[in-house]
Amino acid sequence: MAFQNRPIAVPKKGKASSNQTVASALTRGQPADVNLSTGLLLPRVTGVSSGNHREILSSIRKGFNFGCIPLLEQELHSNRKELSSILSIPTSTLARRQKAGTLNTDESDRVARLARLKDSAVAMMQGDNEAAINWLRTPLEIFDNETPIQHASTEMGARDVEDLIGRIRHGVFS
Question: Where is the Antitoxin Xre-like helix-turn-helix domain (predicted)?
Fold first, then answer.
């Protein structure tokens, strides 16, 4: 997707929450294991608090505990039907996974992708969780009036959202 000559939504600086230390560390490119207990979503859905890429990948391959789905719903102010659409996992499949207790590898990968995007949005908003959720749920012209969270329903879309977040965080306007 070409982003040239399209306006982008620049976040307003808001009051920082308890995630400010982690968000600031992420913005400065410091290791992901900086004070993860403050609320980053990716460690909570993966069960890997160290931020170790290999451990996260191993957790994805094993399949996440189904408990990550209600957690995502809560963290994204979403419901099961909407989350099902964003993750491209039918609600009937989610019902079966709930009974089984675990997601498969592909589903876990999609959950991790969404959690990572939410964490990036929180970092972009300098630790303001509510501002991040509002940004993720606001339709943007750059995504043909889809919300960033809707646009991220595919890997390519998620990369577009990550690219936009990176551009906003680094002040790159085009």
Answer: 76-116
pLDDT 10s per residue in the chain (174 long)? 444 334 444 444 444 433 333 333 333 333 333 333 357 999 999 999 888 899 999 999 999 999 999 999 999 999 999 999 999 999 999 999 999 999 999 999 999 999 999 999 999 999 999 999 999 999 999 999 999 999 999 999 999 999 999 999 988 865
**SS3 state of residue 139:** coil
Please state the φ and ψ torsions of residue 13, each to the nearest 5 degrees: -75, 125
Reading phi first (left if > 0) and then psi (alpha if -120 to 50, else beta), residue 54 is in alpha
Q: Is the pTM of this model over 0.70?
A: yes
Q: Structural domain tally of the chain?
A: 1
Which residue bears the tokens 């399949």? 63
Sign of CA dihedral 38, 42, 48, 53: negative
| Phi/psi at 140 (5° precision) | -120, 135
Instruction: Identify the CA nearest to 24 among candidates 38, 10, 8.
Output: 38
Specify if 12 maps to a domain: no
Whether 9 is in a domain gets the answer no
The distance of Cα 169 from the centroid of its chain, to the nearest Å, equals 15
Residue 41 lies in a domain: yes
Domain residues for the domain of 47 are 20-169
